Amino acid sequence: MMTSRPLSFAALAIAATLTVSACSSGEKPTADPTNPSESPSPVAESSAATVPSDWQTVDLDGVAEISVPPDWTVKSTGDALDTLQAPKDSVGFPPGSATVGVGNLAGGDQSEQLERSANYELKTTYAGYTNLKRLPNEVINDTTFFRLQFEGGADWYDVYGTVTPDGEYSIVFQWKFMKTLDRKQAEAIWSPVMPTFKML
Questions:
Q1: CB 97, CB 39: distance < 8 Å
Q2: Domain with 86 in it: what CATH number?
Q3: Does residue 3 lie within any of the structural domains?
Q4: pLDDT band at residue 2, thresholds of 50, 70 and 90?
Q5: Domain total in the chain
Q6: Average pLDDT in the 82-93 region?
Q7: Residue 164 structural domain
Q8: Is the model more confident about 120 or about 24?
């Protein structure tokens, strides 16, 4: 998807918040006492994936790309937002999807912007949701991602976020899968996709 980049990081955060809130109506979230200011360690290493020739490559606002299997559905909703939807299950429903957003940042040191972005997601976008925690950072194709994990209503959530080398753009993946699967089953569906991420 190629779009202009007027979307502010705050606007992206609002969009992500609305997405999560809509799926969690009726639930009173409970906060986890995670300290969002601490950077987890060690960093988990993840090697690059060899992308099969029939996979779909999704352009993320000209700053990065990711690939998904041919039976996945890709939807672009404008304003630098994409949805990557897993194929339907045996009863005809997709078990989950990722909302991917690209937002503007102030620029500067990549590591500093990554920590600011991670703390913002913890304190603002996802604050108060059940079992919210920050996992160790993960390196995919030489790009460091912060990772968050929590749950809400009938869904599991896993969030990956990174920042472009110039510190000017954030890229956030919000994976959401139904609890009809356990968390390991959900991760088995989306985990082959993340290693295809590539910064442009």
A1: no
A2: 3.40.1000.10
A3: no
A4: very low
A5: 1
A6: 93
A7: 9-23+56-199
A8: 120
